[in-house]
Design brief:
single chain; 82 residues; 1 helix; 27% helix; flat
């Protein structure tokens, strides 16, 4: 993977007024780039965001299956709400 992709922000998803999910590609100490989904929270001064310890790291081999599972969960929740 190219150096500019090693710590790349992919998406921000608002969780609440003071929290958001950030999806990034991150290079770890073993040299492998993985997908990280981490919750960031707004600092008390409301100008800055900081990472929380709450996160999940997903290796390349599992990413597609997890995305497919999340899409299925979303479809089921939509059908139940209808």
């Amino acid at each position: 993977m190219t150096p500019d992709m090693q710590n790349r922000l992919i998406a921000r998803v608002v969780k609440s007024g003071r929290e958001e999910f950030r999806i990034t590609l991150r290079s770890y100490s073993d040299g492998v780039v993985r997908t990280e989904i981490r919750i960031f929270e707004r600092r008390r001064d409301h100008d800055d965001w900081g990472p929380t310890p709450r996160h999940i790291v997903i290796g390349r081999a599992y990413l597609l299956e997890i995305v497919e599972g999340l899409l299925e969960a979303s479809a089921l929740l939509k059908s139940e709400a209808a």
